[in-house]
Design brief:
The complex is a heterodimer of chains A (about 575) and B (about 160). With about 575 residues, chain A is of the alpha/beta class. In chain A, strands 3-2-4-5-7-6 form a 6-stranded parallel β-sheet, sandwiched between helices. Chain A has a 6-stranded parallel β-sheet with strand order 12-11-10-13-14-15, with helices on both faces. The relative contact order of chain A is 0.11. Chain B has about 160 residues and is an alpha+beta fold. Chain B has 5 helices and 8 strands. Chain B has helices at about 1-10, 40-50, 80-90, 110-125, 155; strands at about 15-20, 30-35, 65-75, 95-100, 105-110, 125-130, 135-140, 150. The chains are: A alpha/beta (about 575), B alpha+beta (about 160). The interface between A and B is medium-sized, with 35 and 32 residues. Strand 9 of chain A pairs antiparallel with strand 8 (about 150) of chain B.
């Protein structure tokens, strides 16, 4: 018989059994019993400075490892502050478990102090959520939460626990099985459809692989690479899929979509077979849907049946774990290749020639200047230092797009960003989580001056935990992406986008006890970044870049992806007097 | 809440929704009428099936099924037309459940469209009030619920946690 313990200790017991080694949280009134239990428990708790950042840090941890991240907040404001992180994890299918405290079960509904309907509030923010009002349900629920978060299409799960459950006394009964009769996890994929896919892939003249975050979640990069080796098909990866195909691989083209490359967008538009793997045809990728990949048949592999056919009806729908589906597909292609066909080989060669020509026509290039630091120059330097190996935790905005275009990633889980929700303030706390998850890795928090100021409090977490994160602020003095749209689509009427008054980086970092620096000349850039990397502790580098720079290529909202604006409008020459 | 929340979140309009227990008291059955484009029907079903505590969602739009609704009509009618009201109610299979000097309360069940006609007819006889249950449906094909088997937990497989510090 196990020892008698309170609910709080039992909850920690469950976390340990789920393999949780650290959690990110912020205590409060009703979670006092939990924090009291933590006092003598060896689950590591990282005190963040705002609950939203606890969720983002848990996401950073999960995104860097694939393991379920854990965050914790108290009732009421603690729980409501978590919600942005929950939706963020929902949009990008990131496994996190959030534990929130709730007022005592007898007080629920009485507008008690710090009471909020967390269960009701987080229903649409989570893959699933629970409210635990009885101690005997606690262990089962927590284990179910971990199972749901990490299986199938991963996502956030919230467990709201009332204070009386945390204080109640009981015995931990090991939970040996989980029975969720309505929870279907599709894994295998339909054999007949996979066979059809194998046939079509081999027959296509202008095939293109469109790889996304699902490949990361499934850990299917090796299978993807194998498919590419077998078939020599070009690959575009979405923002969430960067790293699923090494950027250095000759078959890797780049990212398609609103800020995708010329070659990637034209390849999408002209392809005759789109092999969509773990993607959801996001509007930022497809542009105007009616004009998206108009000549292509589509093979869509996804673990979530609701994604297949949601936006584009595929010719070959395959619901299953993309890792297993690709393994089967590769086996079929390997074992029964189509007989060689000269016409087809010639078509494939022409397709590759065309793609290379597009790449050469408008390559993604880092522009530099002698007098000021171009944001693209910063990305190129980061790329040089990372060599495709560092973890880059990006915030949201222009810097995110330039980084996605110009920084190479040789593996999945190195590029960490808020893709679907686009939550500003994500970068810094995500880097906290990622650095905890991967202490062996060089972690950059690459943030804009806007997003950085949203999560500045986390400098405290970074300093107190002595995390050697290199914080690189791409500082253009504006909310750059919003300004870009105002410039291009709102007659240059810049409204509420100027970020004047940025703190002195050296003093700011210094006040937290670590080093910081501001640079604004291009010749300082490489040295400053190298100095940051040499620093054993955290480092804050404020890089003042050209203020008026826009991200190109750009597909205007509602446009077709081949209708790209490739560069800024050319200045009109002023006639000489 | 999960079901209604999901439908509104995805922008679907709920026309009616009924919930009641099934033979297994731990489960309930909902009949939902949703106003969506035919092309989106499949997506609605898939989204419902994604909910963890939905065992199964089925589209009955074209499947063999019976759809019935219960209606309660209170009608205030002058004495001279009372017999006529009764006759009309009878045509629609209606049954008087309350009678007073002011009029009747009548219940009727049937196909929702037929009940619309019933309401129209009753209106001709006097002032009415109506409460409807919303359609209830049952599939005529015997479709077995496909339930997922239990899975062993990681926690169950793992032995004793590391000793405490």
């Amino acid at each position: 018989m196990s020892t008698l313990m309170n609910g709080a200790t039992m909850l920690l017991e469950c976390l340990v059994r789920e393999g949780v080694d650290c959690m990110f949280g912020y205590p409060g009134g009703v979670t006092l019993p939990l924090y009291d239990a933590l006092y003598e428990h060896h689950v590591r708790h990282v005190l963040v400075r705002h609950e939203e950042n606890a969720a983002f840090a848990a996401e950073g941890y999960a995104r860097a490892t694939g393991k379920t991240g854990v965050c914790c907040a108290t009732s009421g404001p603690g729980a409501t502050n978590l919600t942005t992180g929950l939706v963020d994890a929902m949009m990008d299918s990131i496994p996190i478990v959030a534990i929130t405290g709730q007022v005592s079960s007898k007080l629920i509904g009485s507008d008690a102090f710090q009471e909020a309907d967390t269960f009701g509030l987080t229903r649409p923010c989570t893959k699933h959520n629970f409210l635990v009002k009885r101690l005997e349900d606690l262990a089962q629920t927590v284990h179910e939460a971990f199972y749901i978060a990490s299986s199938g299409r991963p996502g956030p799960v919230l467990v709201d626990v009332t204070k009386d459950v945390l204080t109640g006394q009981g015995h931990y009964q090991p939970v040996t099985s989980i029975h969720l009769p309505g929870y279907k996890v599709f894994t295998e994929g339909h054999t007949g459809q996979i066979r059809r896919a194998a046939q079509m892939i081999q027959e296509a003249h202008r095939p293109l692989i469109y790889s996304g975050g699902g490949i990361v979640a499934a850990g299917a990069s090796a299978e993807l690479r194998r498919l590419v080796e077998l078939t020599d098909i070009p690959v575009v990866t979405t923002l969430m899929g960067l790293g699923t195909m090494p950027s250095s691989h000759p078959n890797f083209i780049s990212m398609p979509g609103m800020h995708g490359s010329y070659a990637a967008n034209l390849a999408m538009t002209n392809s005759d077979l789109l092999i969509a793997l773990g993607v959801r045809f996001d509007d930022r990728v497809t542009g105007r849907l009616a004009a998206f990949a108009p000549h292509a048949k589509v093979i869509h592999v996804d673990i979530d049946p609701a994604e297949v056919g949601k936006i584009r009806t595929p010719e070959v729908p395959i619901v299953g774990d993309v890792k297993r589906v690709l393994a089967k597909l590769n086996k079929l292609i390997e074992e029964s290749p189509l007989p060689a066909d000269e016409a087809r080989t010639a078509e494939r060669r022409a397709w590759w020639r065309q793609i290379r020509a597009w790449k050469e026509e408008h390559p993604l290039q880092a522009t530099t200047s002698d007098s000021e630091i171009k944001p693209q120059h910063l990305m190129a330097e980061l790329d040089r230092l990372s060599q495709g190996e560092a973890i880059i935790c990006s915030d949201v905005g222009q810097h995110q797009m330039w980084a996605a275009q110009l920084i190479r990633f040789n593996e999945p889980r190195l590029w960490i960003n808020s893709g679907g929700l686009g939550s500003m303030g994500f970068g810094l706390p995500a880097a906290v989580g990622a650095q905890f998850a991967r202490p062996d890795k060089l972690v950059f928090a690459l943030v804009g001056d806007g997003g950085f100021q949203m999560s500045i409090p986390e400098l405290g977490t970074i300093a107190s935990q002595a995390l050697p994160i290199k914080i690189i602020v791409m500082n253009n003095g504006y909310l750059g992406m919003v300004r870009q749209w105002q410039e291009l689509f709102y007659n240059n009427r810049l409204s509420a986008v100027t970020l004047d008054c940025f703190p002195d980086a050296e003093k700011l970092a210094g006040s937290y006890g670590f080093k910081g620096k501001t640079i604004e000349k291009p010749w300082e850039l490489a040295g400053a970044l190298e100095e940051a990397m040499r620093e054993p502790g955290p480092y804050l580098l404020n890089v003042k870049v050209t203020p008026f720079e826009c991200v190109y290529p750009m597909v205007p909202a509602g446009g077709a992806i081949q209708e790209m604006v490739l560069g800024p409008p050319q200045p009109v020459a002023v006639p000489a007097k | 809440m999960r079901v209604t929340g999901l439908l509104s979140q995805r922008g679907y309009n709920i026309e009616s929704l009924t919930v009641a227990r099934t033979l297994d008291p731990a489960l309930s059955c909902m009949t939902i009428v949703v106003d969506v484009d035919a092309t989106l029907r499949q997506q609605v079903i898939k989204q419902m099936n994604r909910l963890i505590n939905v065992l199964q969602a089925t589209d009955l739009t074209e499947a063999p099924s019976v759809v019935r609704e219960l209606i309660l009509v209170r009608i205030r009618t002058p004495l001279e037309s009372r017999t006529a009201v009764l006759k009309e109610a009878e045509i629609f299979g209606g049954r008087v459940v309350d009678s007073s000097t002011e009029g009747y309360a009548i219940e009727a069940t049937g196909d929702p469209e037929k009940l619309n006609e019933f309401v129209d007819v009753m209106r001709a006889y006097g002032e009415i009030d109506v409460t409807r249950s919303g359609p209830l449906a049952i599939a005529l094909e015997n479709k077995k619920l496909r339930l997922q088997p239990p899975v062993p937990t990681r926690a169950g497989l793992e032995l004793v946690p590391e000793p405490r510090q």
